[in-house]
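Before the break, one more example. Copy the sequence into your notebook; we will annotate it together after we see the structure.
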Amino acid sequence: MTLKAFAVKGQLEAGLDEAGRGCLAGPVTAAAVILPEGFYHPLLNDSKQLSEKEREVLKPVIEREAISFAVTFIRPEKIDEINILQASIYAMHLCVSSLETKPEFLLVDGNRFNPYFGIPHACIIKGDGKYASIAAASVLAKTARDEYMKYLDDQFPEYHWVSNKGYPTEAHKKAIQIHGRTKHHRKSFAIGL
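Here is what the structure looks like once it is written out:
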């Protein structure tokens, strides 16, 4: 399926997506990307459909060619305070406010969003597989978060974050059983042991 370049031709649109919502540890990470109208890359797709290597190829291309982009991390303590949905939306809002170019419209992956200060938006279910700007945002959010989880893995190797990225794998859940939670774990999340 070919990704759509824009919702309305000639409109300055920012794609928004996040990574790490379903994790037990680490931040939720959002990205916003405004792509130029003629942007095309044959690999670009929903980041979940790409290999780590493909995402790493796309990241510098998106960062170089985007009109503007921003990436934001929301730490576990904030997630615990306001809940994961609100933390994801908050992260996206921070990304929009960090864009050097103000978009005229926001294309948001998913079905929930809080309006952002006078910029109209549309929620697109599975939008990262439909619109290029959302797919680009999904790649930047995922690569930034994965990089951060690898950094944390150096400090907490017993949790295997380099491979599970904080998601609730059996190895991760077993490590929590043995070693307990770290300050990087979300206290409000049921571990499901």
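Residues 132-155 form the longest helix (24 residues). The chain is about 40% helix and 15% strand. Try to locate both features in your own notes.
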